[in-house]
Amino acid sequence: MARRGHGLGARLCTLWVAYLLLLHPAAALYHTASETLHWFAHTARKLPDRMRYTTLTEDPTRAGVPLATLGRRPGTASAPGAPPPPRVIFVFGEHCREIITTEVGLWLARLLVDDDSGVRLWPELHSALERAGEAPASAGAIGAAGAWPDTIDAWASEVLEQLSIQIVPIESVEGRRLVEAGQLCMRKTPVTNVDLNRNWPFAWQRVADPADEQYGGPRPLSEPQSRLVKRLIDESPVAAYLNVHSGEWALYTPWDSKPAYGSGLPPDLPGLVAKLGDVCRCMAGPAGAVSGYLAFGSSMDYAYVNSKTPYPLTVEVYGSNQQGKLKNGAKNKPLGSFPIVYVKPEAIANSSSGSSSSSGSSNTSSKELRQCFEIFNPVDEATYREVVGDWLAAFLIVLRHVAKHVAPGSARQLG
Ligand SMILES: [Zn+2]
């Protein structure tokens, strides 16, 4: 959201950012965009056999979308002529203010490629895995806690060997830099004001007012970030696509645009989703049916319908006040209990009118800025570690599941 004026509000805002980034106890927990991208670039140079790093661009003179590819270097398969490994794509930092998502992406990459990463020792990660019924290999005399780091190490090597894991750590880099400069409420793209997760050509809807929080742009794929991520998805079959957000705790499957479960998804998906729901102890199910709202023109529906990705997921990693968390002992409804709505190819690039309600003002007070940060991002170390531990456990489970169920070279695309 663009701010007007550079008076007291702007100064307070700068003070708040200084407070947040320098004085707040959470300061040491968060990395700036520059630190994050530097880690990816540096680690790719240091460990080229495990990770490559590039920036996707349409025009070399303009900023693009950063992309890390983790896994065996292409052309180094154990057997000559072996088929390419299944591809899994993670997108973090699509909405600018949801900076915790980028932290999770950074820790995921560190867990997978960085042997010195202390995250493999985190008890929060171990207990999240145990909630899903996982156990470390050969706990034996040293006990589960002692055996977890070696088990996680073995799992990381296994998924790097079997998959190509593509991580977009920050999709909206320019917007993220503005968040760091104090615009803590910014969700959409700077200047064009587009919600990048409403800018895709499946079931896109025209929203008249660019101030609307769900404004999807003047047309589908109007934004370079959407076009670049779409190009990445379209390059070759995608086994799993995970679009990562914050604002609540939740794990969603298609549909985004209908209050129902999608047809044709793999028979093992309900079991996987139930397990992930146990990890996060949060809402898990079809987005449009359990979130309470429909999202039109989302990348998850595109990955599901257009790219025929068998495991399309949207993840909401954190919400303040336990938003999205299940009450003690509560369970999610099984996916099979939701009505199913079938894919209709003609729904692509639907341009019917949507709502045009306006929301928000560009004169954001410092209190609102602070609330914006706290609604989407944890501010204490215990919660930060809980978020990272839960979602690294969930993502490791997804990666191992895909490696087991999708054969190399077999697209296993939906029919
Ligand atoms: Zn979001």
TrEMBL record:
GO CC terms, sorted: extracellular space
Signal peptide: 1-28
Catalytic residue list: E316 (proton donor/acceptor)
Record-level GO BP terms: proteolysis
Cofactor: Zn(2+)
Occurrences of domain Peptidase M14 (ranges): 29-339
Key word Signal present: yes
GO MF annotations, alphabetized: metallocarboxypeptidase activity; zinc ion binding
Gene3D superfamilies documented for this protein: Zn peptidases (3.40.630.10)
Keywords, alphabetical: Signal
Family, similarity comment: Belongs to the peptidase M14 family.
Protein name: Peptidase M14 domain-containing protein
Native species: Monoraphidium neglectum
